[in-house]
Amino acid sequence: MRVISPVYGRPSGWNRLLAPRVVVTAGLSGIRKARFAVIGAGYAGIAVSRRLAELFPDERIVLLESSTVGEGAAGRNSGFLIDQPYAKIQASKDAKEAEWQKLFLQTGRKWLEELVGRHGIDCGWNPCGNYKAAMTEQGEAELKELAGRLKSVGASFEALSRADLADRLGTSFYRAAVWMPNCILVQPAALVRGLADNLPQNVILAEETPVLDVRRGKPHTVVTPQGEVEADMVIFANNSFLGRFGIARSRQITMYTYAGLTPALPAEDADRLGAASDWGMVPAERMGATTRKVGDRYMIRTGFSYERELDNAEVEAALRNAYRKRYPDMPSHELEYVWGGAVSITRNGAPFFGEVGPGLYGVSGCNGSGIIKMSLLGKLLAEHIAGQDSTLLRGCLEWAKPSWIPPEPLRRIGVAMSMRKHIRLVAQARP
Ligand SMILES: Cc1cc2nc3c(=O)[nH]c(=O)nc-3n(C[C@H](O)[C@H](O)[C@H](O)COP(=O)(O)OP(=O)(O)OC[C@H]3O[C@@H](n4cnc5c(N)ncnc54)[C@H](O)[C@@H]3O)c2cc1C
Prior knowledge:
The protein is of the alpha/beta class. It is 33% helix and 24% strand.
């Protein structure tokens, strides 16, 4: 059977921590007419719908989600909103591009912050900064380089040793870290649900409504199991599943990554994770693990697979092992929830954005960090559709150009080679 949307093996742990979702509209019956149909209620789809609704207050926008809001990647992620383009600061020789990226991310963060405040979205919005930590010699060298660049642009940060980290986070696993203030931590399922639940009135959100096909025409016909939407414009905001509709196939791949969340730990065990009630850490190494202390729970995200979600038992063992390595003295390494999520990866890290045919638009290519990025890209796509112009939009049209990826079998071979290299590096890490 042709898979046109993600079907996950297990529910998102974050979403399970919330009250069961009350779906207002499940499925569509008959034929509906709308000016705009948006496919996918993740950060991009919700943002594009919101902005279209503002710019076209007399038009109807139908937003179609195959699952329920909070069960897609938007509610499966680690909840880091980093608004400083560290990678660019580290690697870019083009200071102008780094400046533009910074403006882009900070504008996106401010917009989300404003929406969270305006609608009172209870998502644990916590501007507590984050650690970038190294477990390998190479990672440590990269951190030093990053610290130098942060210093050169006057950005604030704190360099930490293994002993500092043991003191603060209760783990001696890492060789060093840099703490940076430009990060907000959230409960991602609560954030995406809150954003969806506060959409303008002229957006009709249909959950449990997978789009099976889009028949191109005037109007376009969006086909779902029970009904159809006839729309002048269709926006594909369905992450790496754009390719299933023949869009951006040679520009992105689907990777799955995995996360686990412990049960609520007894107070003395939660204390072993450090005195702060919440903290977040991202890896200095590509393909390393992201970790968080979330009140009395610990979260870990690690591992990747290409195109296919792995068996959760295998994933569960890997996550438990990664947790044990970081906290060998913890009495239990059980995880209450384990889940996977799909992300869209492009070869050069640029997202996919823009018109893909008459009345057809696409946005994807989060490259593993899309809460801010895909939200703002969605907003800018709506503004592009409305014919607006801005510095951000112009930069986006210039920058969002993912490079070509060869077809199978070269594609699979390339991914395997790249993963082997990084996994070997990560596996060398010893506490
Ligand atoms: C484990 C994990 C950890 C991550 N950690 C972070 C992090 O800390 N910070 C960060 O910024 N990002 C993180 N990410 C990435 C982040 O989740 C994504 O960048 C973000 O969700 C992408 O937004 P999107 O709107 O493009 O796609 P999505 O959020 O995936 O939304 C697309 C939606 O389209 C729906 N859909 C797909 N096909 C169809 C169809 N045929 N019909 C109808 N609906 C369809 C899907 O169900 C989905 O809900 C992480 C991802 C994972 C998996």
